[in-house]
């Protein structure tokens, strides 16, 4: 039984499941069960041994196991490499270690289980029949690998029956429950290094292993124990156009204990604490010299309706105010990052010491807050100190702005707060050397170190990006949209992206968007893991308006928080038709605010928590033309208007390093 050390609850649950059955000698199955401590992705600090596991595979490997009518195994698929997630690496290493145990053990066969399984009705009877059918005349098992839990995705599926099925070709998913003989385990170890998710790699060994599936699934994974693993193939299939439906991904709503207040000395991990609280779903205000007066007053009076439910490293929270807040908020919790920083007498049950000597901060914090242990690494961020709040100056030439429907998440403040204008942080006056990347009409866009022409797509895009649709001419670039059938889409579109991710700077382009309804011209900054994004978009059904948007998820690089379907969109009335002539559109992104500019003039601005935090991870620059799946959003496409194009005259990216 493969089980994580930090999940004793799963170990207890699966033991109860096994105790429902007895072996032929009358012993409960738990007597025969040995627990294998699973490799934990959260604590992996080094790369896997390349002689054991190569943490990548190709799209061709995926299609070998699960063919797709839209894709074929060709040189492109063989060259399309997919990096495994940390969770997939940990699962693979756990199974490989278990095979070693089988080889060195005394038994000729072993049933290998993951810790989220349940036996189906008739399990014992059907297992006995399957076992009998797979014995040789001497009574020994006549197989190497027998799947008891599986999902059949082969092109020649068989109807469920009583007899086991000999699997000679790939097409079997899951490694939650399988029987492995000692000889089979040795064959697998001899075939190392494995590559890719372990259930995929097992399929590629069927030619050398005598593999069977039970006539029907005898063991299933629990539906009430959702997986927290992330799967590397899903974003890859989205990019190549196989996944055509995008489901709105929203954070689960659960009641969090609090309010939570984080205190400590400078450079004691307060910024990391604030990020950690945000990652588990708190709306966290942090690292400020003072708190907005209304928010502080409500907290001191213990009133509901506050904007935030966590406060870390706030100058307004001194020892005197903390004692009053503790009295007014009987459920308030206090996290101290410095051992000697104890403001007054607080009940021990409401205080957590989380100084730098605590080895597993997630364990201490999650137990204290009464939440599940998070599936990502605890953040290690440099303390940014208490930032000064400044007065907000009105824009010289603001344009009329209308908010559209926002997503709902812990990192978006609700728009019912009519007078809330966010928090203006004083600008950092430190200067650094400026770095500019410039392209202008008449120059080729062939700098492979700077730019890439996209050849992928995403679920809500009804077109496939094609490098052939980006063409240079004497007056600039054309991003074209055509009716052109491909295996995954009926249209092709165009996109330019930077090969470098940038942290803050100015991102501008002079262009004229397409005015064909159903199409979107976008200039935006983007990343996944965590998802953060800053947008300028022109909807072809009304190019007199500019749509600006921000998506925010917290976390360091690699954090699999990618919530957001609509984001926080706002329409800006330009006062002219953008499709009639060229204009320069710019995103000016700083740590303390985002400004959207048209022809050099700031027309709209967002500050901290207006309504989201400012994206704080490096982002990729993009300029594209695409076909939206949402007719409500961009209108119906008139195919007789194709081909069409967005014309680009210049691109300028300016960043600075301190």
Total helical segments = 13
Could you please say which CATH topology of the largest domain applies here? Spore Coat Polysaccharide Biosynthesis Protein SpsA, Chain A
Which ranges are low-confidence, i.e. pLDDT below 50, for 5 or more consecutive residues? none
According to DSSP, the number of beta strands is: 37
CATH-derived architecture of the largest domain: Alpha-Beta Complex
Main sheet: strands, sense, barrel: 17 strands, mixed
Kindly report how far apart the N and C termini lie. 52 Å
Number of domains: 3
What gyration radius follows from the Cα positions, in whole Å? Answer: 29 Å
**What percentage of the residues does DSSP assign to strands (E)?**
25-35%
Percentage of residues in helical conformation = 10-25%
Instruction: Quickly give the structural class.
Output: alpha+beta
Family: Belongs to the glycosyl hydrolase 16 family.
Keywords: Glycosidase, Hydrolase
Protein name: Beta-glucanase
Key words describing this protein structure:
single chain; 658 residues; alpha+beta; Spore Coat Polysaccharide Biosynthesis Protein SpsA, Chain A; Rossmann fold; Jelly Rolls; 3 domains; 17-stranded mixed sheet; 5-stranded mixed sheet; globular
Question: Can you walk through the features of this model?
Answer:
The chain is α+β, with helices and mostly antiparallel strands and 658 residues long. It folds into three domains: 2-240, Spore Coat Polysaccharide Biosynthesis Protein SpsA, Chain A (Alpha-Beta Complex); 260-369, Rossmann fold, CATH 3.40.50; 435-657, Jelly Rolls, CATH 2.60.120. It contains 13 helices and 37 strands. The chain has a 17-stranded mixed β-sheet that branches. Strand 34 (593-598) and strand 35 (601-607) form a beta hairpin. The mean pLDDT is 91.
